[in-house]
Amino acid sequence: MSGGVDSSVAAWLLKQQGYEVVGLFMKNWEDDDDNEYCSARQDWLDAVSVADVVGVDIEAVNFAAEYKDRVFTEFLREYAAGRTPNPDVLCNAEIKFKAFLDHALSLGAEQIATGHYARVRQHEGQFQLLKAVDGSKDQSYFLHRLNQAQLSKTLFPLGELHKTEVRKIAQQLGLSNAAKKDSTGICFIGERPFREFLNRYLPNTTGPMKTPEGKEVGQHVGLAFYTLGQRKGIGLGGSKTGSGEPWFVARKEMASNTLYVVQGHDHPWLLSQQVQVQDSSWVAGYAPPTQTFAAKTRYRQADAPCTLNAVDGATFQLDFAQAQWAVTPGQSAVLYDGEICLGGGIIAIAE
Fold first, then answer.
1. By C-alpha distance, which of 192, 257, 259, 268 is closest to 226?
2. Which residue range is the domain that position 103 belongs to?
3. Which of 301, 293, 307, 273 minimizes the C-alpha distance to 341?
4. Does any domain span residue 121?
5. Predicted TM-score of the model (pTM)
6. Catalytic: which of 38, 91, 306, 341?
7. For residue 106, what pLDDT band results from cuts at 50, 70 and 90?
8. Cys-Cys with 207: which of 183, 198, 257, 276 at CB 3.0–4.6 Å?
9. Pick from 28, 17, 3: which is nearest to 115 by CA?
10. Into how many domains does the chain fold?
């Protein structure tokens, strides 16, 4: 129970279904307890308030050490290497469905439940991860690294509901967080400026900003502070150079500390038809057959038809029917067969 409306309603639904429910509030970050951007104390108060209304016991459990070791360290390593990681994917696999699951089982729990918008289905002896009924809130993308053992112990009570229904239930119950704003962004950064946060942990070595033709048009503040497809915050907004179209971050060259920028949303350097993926994880425990599926190379994206090819150990290749925009190394490529999430991996190269 995070203090948000989703996990609060999930707890109430489970009670209604006859489950014996115990609430656990996870604390995963400690560095900014007194900071204006850290909402952990208010979240805990909200969770306690909800537990009282729903009628469940609640306790706080601290996974800050595990989080720093398994998620944050990897997050910094990826940014330092010029990639753009997705820590929410890693947090789900390593903390919520590993450290938290292990802790819950040690307390005698039979299963864990969260407020994620996704579904689990048992089919022919396998546990399948399915998209949520509410497509606009579906979170299967962030859960694609879950395995059979984890899914067998997991419930997603909100999977069949729309967000509007969840808020309506919370209002009818009189929950104090019924209208609470959804949390956004990366949990340990909160609402703070992203560059300000990264600056505390990574060196910001400035370097040239160039066009594909090699013309220098500016200076960047450190490659870690940019992501492919980025338009705002580049520092070239008023530049008269070139076509007059908006500038976008297109490539990073770590060896020369060069940031390449292009003009125009559909510049060829921003489009990729073939994606190499590494560190694969398959929900079934093994790779699906090499055939046509659909995939997302970022969360807020429609499923794009593609062919799964060249599966070799932990690596595979996706060939898209249509070129994909700003495919970003470090992000997750997640594969779907209709509503079934098959798994995915970390984008290494996009061409």
1. 259
2. 5-173
3. 293
4. yes
5. 0.93
6. 91
7. very high
8. 257
9. 3
10. 3
